[in-house]
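sanity check this chain:
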Amino acid sequence: MVQLIDTHSHLYDEAFDEDIDIVINNALEKGVTKIILPAIDSSTIERQKKLSASYPDIFYQMIGVHPTSIKEDYRKELDVVYNEISTNADSYLAIGEVGLDYYWDTTFAHEQQTALITQIEWANKYQKPVALHVRNAYTEMFEVLEKHSVDRRGVLHCFSGTLSDAKRAVDMGYMLGIGGVVTFKKNELAKIVAELPLQNILLETDAPYLAPTPYRGKRNESAYVLNVAQIVAEIKNTSLEQVAETTLQNAVELFGI
């Protein structure tokens, strides 16, 4: 059996309240032995910590404020999260997920950038990589990263940019998070994956969102990272074992697991 890491999964979400033990067993049966939990904001900290404590050999945690949680009171939100990382820094292997999301609304675009820069400063202070959420804002994201470099770099989670964006990110030292979208028909992501070395790729699910084919439209879960790995192997014309081994090593090197 191959060994896989789901580098981005919200299994503390309420969608899993009724069957989390089954979901975890499903993942283990598919060879998914490590799962990284990205934060959303202060409202998810305790749920995330509780799940991680229940399965300490499986889960690793990130901490941060998601860009869509940046509103008028974002500084209070940042203060709560900073208090958590400043008192429990060793409990978190990365700052994430953080970033820029201009898909639905740009009302707080400036505040999102300010919050991102602040959280990059945290990453550098505590020597953590970052997990970046980027949607309809790749130009702006690269501008921020060029002015405010992340010492330990990180990953562009759920990559949705162009091939040019992908190459730019890789040239800057970032990994690309590849999830269920790569299994969809007529998607551009498959073409991008075909152009990139496996050494620049991490596998993820973003559960409970973006379930891969043949589960599209249903609740996603960490076991399905195997489906992503299988499609990546087909795209790269290589073995599942090679994809698993390389992406596992990528995650170990980036996150220090």
Summary: DSSP finds nine helices and eight strands in the chain.
